Amino acid sequence: MLGRRAEAGLGKAEGKDDRRARRTVTMPTVSVFYGILIQMFFEDHAPPHFHARYAEHRAQINIATLEIMSGSLPRTAMSLVRQWGEGHRDELMENWQLCVQMRPPKKITPLS
């Protein structure tokens, strides 16, 4: 049986490209609504945030403020993400802690 680090594809001599490739594989989707994917990386950098994807648009959203840290989303998509995030901030923080510990995040109810 492989350890958590081995299962996640983490090696001792990883380069920047290896980490980037691992992140694209290990970004669980925690919710999906109106074509928007909400995802979180394992062992991601602070501050606590999640990734929102909509069509070709990508953004990192700060959990505490629900403001875009980087990237962009169309106005309507961002409005939906904020509305959803306001109702799920505690669950997002719980998932952030799970991801920091390399544990799978829990699914979060989508916006309806």
Largest sheet: 5 strands, antiparallel
Low-confidence runs of at least 5 consecutive residues = 1-14
Count of DSSP E strands?
A: 5
What fraction, in percent, of the residue positions are helical?
25-40%
Shape: globular
Give me the strand/helix succession. Answer: HHEEEEEHH
> How many helices?
4
Proportion of residues in β-strands: 15-25%
State the separation between the terminal residues, measured CA to CA.
40 Å
Q: Report Rg.
A: 14 Å
Class per helix and strand makeup: alpha+beta
Mean pLDDT: 85
The spatial strand order of the largest sheet comes to 1-2-3-4-5
Structural description of this entry:
This protein is α+β, with helices and mostly antiparallel strands and 112 residues long. It is 35% helix and 22% strand. It has helices spanning 4-7, 16-25, 75-87, 89-100, and strands spanning 29-33, 36-39, 49-54, 57-62, 68-71. It has a 5-stranded antiparallel sheet with strand order 1-2-3-4-5. The longest helix has 13 residues, at 75-87. The protein is globular, with a radius of gyration of 14 Å. The protein starts with a helix and ends in a 12-residue tail after the last helix. The model is unreliable at 1-14 (pLDDT under 50).
